[in-house]
Design a protein that fits this description.
Layout lengths: L16 E5 L32 H13 L4 E5 L9 H9 L6 E6 L4 H11 L3 E5 L5 H7 L6 H14 L5 E6 L8 H11 L2 E6 L17 H9 L4 E4 L9 E5 L5 E5 L12 E4 L4 E3 L8 E2 L1 H5 L4 H13 L5 H8 L9 H4 L2
Parallel strand pairs: 1-2, 1-10, 2-3, 3-4, 4-5, 5-6, 6-9
Antiparallel strand pairs: 7-8, 8-9, 10-11, 11-12
The protein binds iron/sulfur cluster (SF4).
């Protein structure tokens, strides 16, 4: 049963978006998320029995929809490394009240999976591709893939009927910032909606430094110098990207400026980790366990009550206060654990 009133936090932000991390594993080793030197062959990922089953995820999703969730996004790690993920997509697509099911993937397994995901009811796909330069891209993903494999994945998603396809690219100074314009031109020509993401201090393992951040303003300037842009309105309350349209009518581009232009004021997102913890912020320090109550026989209403309590007490606005916290930050949850 859907709550009649929106679930609001301490800043009157309504809960709307649920990000579901279905695994902590990934087939890439992106330097800003899961550096290979820390996540080698001996790293202990979550054992299968610790992961929420598809049935448990679907039951929780139904409870979250009742509390106001309209958008579900499947993330990871890499969601496509979770076996038979299309079965979960079909279960979620069958739920009443869900308007949008999306997935963020590195695209490597899309040639095998795109059609099945589409048939299962997935609405949208966002593919991560940080550069078109093969050497740069391989350096950024821990040598796990070339550019062509990801382009093949994007083509398979297009073939399966996903549109528009969004492309996410994290920009790091001195790493891939010199390849930004080429990627923008390619996505413009292909009709993909590209979103550049400012490099963030997610988790505790990526050695983040403010000096390595290329600001959204710098990125916009680099592109505007070659392909003139104009700023346009966000699509909805809570949209994370600053949207720009190409003046020649050639589509749009987005800039996710969590560091230089934080958007906590309109953050409507909750994250569910693979083992059933909920986090009220990407930079959260501690999660609230739902798997325990779920496996102990709690009713949907009892679980809903836990979530209502967590959200209504929410005061997160990490990006806005990041500057104040510099030097005293608590150990934050890792991005590969709860998705971006
Ligand atoms: S920092 Fe936290 S509160 Fe701010 S936008 Fe990101 S997830 Fe939301």
């Amino acid at each position: 049963m859907k709550d009649t009133l929106p679930l609001l936090d301490q800043f009157n932000r309504p809960f709307r978006d649920l990000r579901i991390s279905v695994t902590d594993r990934c087939n890439f080793r992106c330097t800003y998320c899961m550096p290979a030197e820390l996540f080698g062959e001996h790293y202990h990922f979550l054992p299968k029995h610790d992961l929420l089953s598809f049935e448990e995820i679907t039951r929780l999703a139904r409870v979250f929809i009742g509390l106001g969730a309209v958008k579900l996004r499947l993330t990871g790690g890499e969601p496509l490394v979770r076996q038979e993920i299309e079965i979960l997509v079909a279960q979620l697509a069958a739920l009443d009240g869900v308007e949008n099911i999306a997935m963020t993937t590195n695209g490597f397994l899309l040639p095998q999976k795109a059609q099945a995901l589409k048939e299962a009811g997935l609405h949208r796909v966002t593919v991560s591709l940080d550069s078109l330069d093969d050497t740069v891209f391989r350096r950024m993903n821990g040598g796990r893939s070339g550019v062509q494999e990801v382009l093949d994945g994007i083509a398979a998603a297009k073939q399966a009927g996903f549109a528009p396809i969004k492309i996410n690219a994290v920009v790091q100074r001195g790493v891939n910032d010199h390849t930004v314009v080429d990627l923008a031109r390619y996505c413009k020509d292909q009709g993909y909606i590209l979103r550049f993401i400012e490099y963030m201090d997610v988790g505790t393992l990526n050695g983040w430094r403010l000096d390595d951040v290329v600001s959204a303003a710098e990125i916009a300037e680099m592109i505007n110098a070659k392909m003139p842009l104009e700023l346009i309105e966000r699509n909805y309350f809570g949209e994370v990207a600053l949207r720009y349209r190409y003046q020649d009518g050639g589509g749009e581009i987005g800039l996710i400026a969590s560091v230089t232009k934080p958007f906590c004021g309109s953050c409507t997102r909750l994250r569910l980790s693979p083992e059933g913890q909920i986090y009220t912020c990407l930079f959260g320090v501690e999660g609230i366990d739902l798997r325990g109550p779920l496996r102990a026989g709690a009713s949907d209403e009892e679980i809903a009550e836990i979530v209502r309590g967590v959200w209504s007490r929410r005061t997160d606005r990490y990006s806005e206060i990041r500057t104040e916290q510099t030097g005293v930050a608590a150990p934050k949850v890792e991005m590969f654990h709860i998705g971006g």
